[in-house]
Amino acid sequence: MNRAIVLLSGGLDSATTLYYAKAMGYDVRALIFDYGQRHRREVVAARELARAAKVRFEVVKISMPWKGSALLDLSLRVPSRGIKKNAIPPTYVPARNIIFLSFAASFAEAVGARAIFIGANAVDYSGYPDCRPEFFKAFQAALDQGLKTGVQKKGIRILIPLVDMSKADIVELGQKLGVPFEKTWSCYNGAEKICGVCDSCRLRAKGFLRAKVIDPVVGMRERKRV
Ligand code: ZN
């Protein structure tokens, strides 16, 4: 069985990617980062998702004390007024996917995995440059040149199955694959309840609405209010 590493953040996209990799028959190992994000709830969700999917997982704790993002710096506000086209919002984390994929490449090479799945999306997204296909192509070239398995032409492939999908397509795919949506967490604010107004909440809501699927996380929020 081919082994694959799946980057698992606890959100809708990475959860769908996890189930997709499993459905493709890979022996999946999940990689979760506790990187000081304000939405700590996400790490809890990622662990629960890995357990629910019955895959082995590693939680890697890293620190970015220089911050530089509203997701790392509690003194900065997470924008709540919607996504601006062609702008990179303050929730961008400097070099996050470069860091994550570097860890994933090390993990993959050490355990003999030939694929790294990342649930990045460049359609319904916040405009982060490290979520675009151009970035993954360039990073693939770096792995082919920089890894032992790369220069031996037994390279590790970066797979981005959701990159061209809309959020509604992702919800539909997740539903087909049996993703437990109630265990996922997307809100950037990571409080007890979802905020409903951050970019991530807005994108998620749009996806569920267009896919005509009820988001159980929103349902839970409403029930708690009563
Ligand atoms: Zn939110």
Task: Characterize this entry briefly.
This protein has helices at residues 12-23, 41-52, 96-111, 133-146, 148-151, 167-177, 199-211, 216-225; strands at residues 3-7, 27-34, 56-61, 115-117, 157-159. It has 226 residues and is α/β, with parallel strands linked by helices. The chain has a single domain, classed as HUPs (Rossmann fold), CATH 3.40.50.620.
What can you see in these coordinates?
The protein has 226 residues and is an alpha/beta fold. It has one domain (3-225): HUPs (Rossmann fold, 3-Layer(aba) Sandwich), CATH 3.40.50.620. Helix content is 41%, strand content 11%. The protein is built from 8 helices and 5 strands. It has helices spanning 12-23, 41-52, 96-111, 133-146, 148-151, 167-177, 199-211, 216-225; strands spanning 3-7, 27-34, 56-61, 115-117, 157-159. Strand 1, helix 1 (12-23) and strand 2 (27-34) form a beta-alpha-beta unit. The mean pLDDT is 93.
CATH topology: Rossmann fold
Domain tally: 1
Helix content: 40-55%
Share of β-strand residues: 5-15%
CATH architecture: 3-Layer(aba) Sandwich
Say which CATH homologous superfamily is assigned.
HUPs
Order of helix and strand elements from N to C terminus: EHEHEHEHHEHHH
Structural class: alpha/beta
Task: Describe the global form.
Answer: globular
Overall mean pLDDT score?
93
Number of strands: 5
Strand order in the sheet with the most strands? 3-2-1-4-5
CATH level 1 name: Alpha Beta
Number of helices in the DSSP assignment? 8
Low-confidence segments, given as residue ranges, are none
Characterize the main sheet: 5 strands, parallel
